[in-house]
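Comment thread on ticket #2218

A.B. wrote:
> Attaching the input chain for the structure job we discussed in standup.
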Amino acid sequence: MQLYNTLSAKERAALIEEAGQERLTISFYKYAHIGNPSIFRNHLFIHWNELDVLGRIYVAHEGINAQLSIPAENFAAFKSHLDSIVFLENVRLNIAIEQDNLSFLKLKVKVRKKILADGLNDATFDVTNKGVHVNAETFNKLIEDPDTILVDMRNHYESEIGHFKNALTPDVDTFRDSLDIIEKDLVDHKEDKKLVMYCTGGIRCEKASAYYKHKGFKQVYQLEGGIIEYTRQVNDNNLENKFLGKNFVFDHRRGERITDHVIANCHQCGNPCDVHVNCANEACHLLFIQCDSCAEKMDQCCSNECKEINALPYEEQKKLRRGKVVSNKIFKKGRSEVLAYKK
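C.D. wrote:
> Ran it. Output below, let me know if you need it in another format.
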């Protein structure tokens, strides 16, 4: 039985456009003890492929982390299948604020060592011993408390375009980098302060809250459902929105507009801008912020060097890439030295 994709992203996009069906972009996670992730992975692929699910799903002994899209008409069947799996019954589903039928173009279900890379190798750390989950209303009250320290558990390129007022935004490239840095910075407040954390959909805070409890923090809270669910509750319940800007998302959209505030700047000219793009030179593919004016001027590239390469015939570009690993600039996420402006 086929347990992998056979269509390219381009072919899949054409089929989606032709079908004309509205799709929902959804994310969810669950920490659980999975005995055989490979068998579970195959089970998911078989059932979700039949429902035309597309997305990026990681399965590990510690649980599942899923970001996907599905035809709206198949949502009930998808939810029914989730509920048939004991540890996923009634799991919270974060439905995107802004929908895009092309948010995902392939179904990728992968077995990983962990569903969230954390760099931790501590056998005594129990990820299920998590902090207190709070809804949007309680969160708003907590972060007004002078005894609260609010921490953004995301990476620098995410918080750069949007974050909560007065939040600490660690200047880190990865989640694993943030854990020890935050503990070191807040070591004197393990007893007397409320540690309140947030992230995109909740998965990073779930692990971080358990980690900081493990490290001795006494009052640990996390925003239930992350920024995605917070925005939904704020809109549904007419609450004050304390988030500024855009929420970075890990699909083709790259961001959801939460408020009209533009708190970032184009990495090439410095003008206000919060639109992430990838360099058009496939050998670079750097993620950075670029305004429309610079995109036109630079042919959607991050540097003059990439602009020159991108102007070459495709076959010549392929020859230049032959035998080379994709440039590590892809991991710099807006930090490359070729960028003239960095906030």
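A.B. wrote:
> Thanks. Noting for the ticket: The first helix runs from residue 9 to 19.
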